[in-house]
Amino acid sequence: MTLSIKCTAIPEDSGIDPKILCKMNIDGRSGVAQAYLLGQLSRSSKAPKGFGEELIKVAFAELEVAKRKVGCRMLRLDCHDELIPYYEGLGFKFIRKNEAGTLNQMVIFI
Ligand SMILES: CC(C)(COP(=O)(O)OP(=O)(O)OC[C@H]1O[C@@H](n2cnc3c(N)ncnc32)[C@H](O)[C@@H]1OP(=O)(O)O)[C@@H](O)C(=O)NCCC(=O)NCCS
């Protein structure tokens, strides 16, 4: 897995749940919210089932430290349709499709 920082453009007509929108700390001028990005999450086929979830817990622990040092409480990931239920089970919420319509942007607040 990788962790980075990503700008997330939030259009005014995004349709995102207002309860999520109000936590995003969106910049009023640019309409952009900063988020940590969890990328390239993958476990080896030799690793036991559930190891991916363990990796996500490691990511949360790292981000707790980052949040204390530099702020930013939103974590985003982009996934294909078939993985939405997996991430929802871990507490992530769907916010929108990416611009190409190929991936789903999902967020959780640390
Ligand atoms: C995503 C991943 C890290 C999750 O690892 P994990 O926590 O160990 O969980 P598992 O791999 O056991 O998958 C848990 C459940 O998620 C769902 N799931 C995982 N991958 C899926 C896929 N490609 N399609 C549909 N469902 C999937 C299934 O319900 C699965 O349970 P099941 O195998 O009993 O049906 C791992 O499946 C993986 O490395 N996948 C390949 C890379 C990938 O797609 N990464 C996602 C990037 S956003």
Furnish the topology, listing elements before pairings.
Blueprint: E1 2-9, H1 18-21, E2 32-39, H2 51-70, E3 74-79, H3 84-89, E4 93-97, E5 104-109
The protein binds coenzyme A.
Tell me what portion of residues adopts beta-strand conformation: 25-35%
In whole angstroms, the N-to-C terminal distance is: 18 Å
Largest sheet: 5 strands, mixed
**Assigned CATH superfamily:** Gcn5-related N-acetyltransferase (GNAT)
What is the residue-averaged pLDDT? 95
Which strands sit side by side, in order, in the main sheet? 1-2-3-5-4
The first-level CATH class name: Alpha Beta
Structural class: alpha+beta
Total number of beta strands: 5
Describe this structure in words.
This protein is of the alpha+beta class. The chain has a five-stranded mixed sheet. 14% of the residues are buried. It is 27% helix and 30% strand. The chain binds coenzyme A. Coenzyme A binds next to helix 2 and strand 3.
Output the keywords.
110 residues, 5-stranded mixed β-sheet, 3 helices, 5 strands, globular
Short description:
The chain is of the alpha+beta class and 110 residues long.
